[in-house]
Specification:
Elements: E1 2-6, H1 17-25, E2 31-34, E3 38-39, E4 45-50, E5 56-62, H2 68-86, E6 91-95, E7 111-116, H3 130-140, E8 143-146, H4 149-155, E9 162-164, H5 171-174, H6 185-188, E10 194-198, H7 207-216, E11 221-225, E12 242-246, H8 253-258, E13 262-265, H9 280-286, E14 291-293, H10 297-304, E15 310-311, H11 315-326, H12 330-341, H13 346-366, H14 378-383
Parallel strand pairs: 1-2, 1-6, 2-5, 3-5, 6-7, 7-8, 8-9, 10-11, 10-13, 11-12, 13-14, 14-15
Antiparallel strand pairs: 4-5
Helix pairs in contact: 1-13, 7-11
Amino acid sequence: MNVVCVSHLRWDFVFQRPQHLLSRATRDGSVLYVEEPTSVTGPARIDIRKDLTGVLVAVPRLPDTLSEQVRNEVLQRLIEDAIRLHIKGAYTLWYYTPMALPFTTRLRPAMVVFDCMDELSAFAGAPAELRRLEAQLFAKADVVFTGGESLYEAKRSRHPRVHLLPSSVDVAHFAQARMLPPDPRDQALIPTPRIGYFGVIDERLDYALLAGVAAARPEWHFVLVGPTAKVDVRTLPVGPNLHYLGPKAYAELPTYISGWDVAMLPFAHNDATRFISPTKTPEYLAAGKPVVSTSIRDVVRPYGHLGLAHIADGVDAFVLAIDAARRDDPATRRQAADAFLGRISWDATWQRMRQAIAAARDLETAHIAVEPPPFISDQRLFTATAD
């Protein structure tokens, strides 16, 4: 199966759901990943390079002077040219953003997939037309995937083939943290105990909570690894025990996590976090670390319910939860985490996606209507993704 993906995410920004899935898609065929365009002086062009994963990463370069209509026409032509050169045969058109609809209207894919990994309309700076375009994408798609249960509940009535496929984990990669590799140079001088977070530092984090917990426990050190986005770095909380180490490569993450005593998910409760299902939760567990999170729904269920994460809101409760996490018995915690993690994998998720796409293709061919899938309970949520 060849795949042409249009996405709002830079391939090299953070290694997350699209990278995990589409790197596996290269086992079945060619994958062309089209990023949002960047500005260029001179004629429009599209630069294409082959990533180490085998994915062809395409970056359109467009002059700023183009009107929206001309911009979409030029962008569509560039994508058509890239497909003609690099994709041999039929392909699946894979959307991560509805905003790509205006410049993909002439494409003729065999199948259309919408992998809905976030409620993009709730994010800061979301375009006004996003909801309208999302409705059009639901009408166009043959299959819809959602990256978490909350998002599934919100979207399942909008299409006859919506599948809950939560983000998974590369257990072997993050389990390297358990082998206690040497501290990276920029973390080695930070005192312990360390409470760490990796991920995008954006409007989803609760900065008042972070500042309050850091002030309440000045002897603890809070390490934040990841790029900033859509926040003014001058407004981030500062202090002698707050350490922002910047973005790191996916390959480096286990070495940073290894040096933490507790891994945290200090998410705010706002529109941007209402439907999130943080991939880092199982990654922290695979690294062998205790997890403390605010009451994000897709962390509470299943991780909180299964005793795999401490859930707390507010400064005082979060401090107490970190204290409790530090007292966890490591062997008992890792045994429980490993039993859970043994039932999920990115390979299994990709296999289920392939099967869902094939089933939808068969249904389209036979012109058979299908009923919406039933609600998937907590119990079935993760057993369904077993290898």
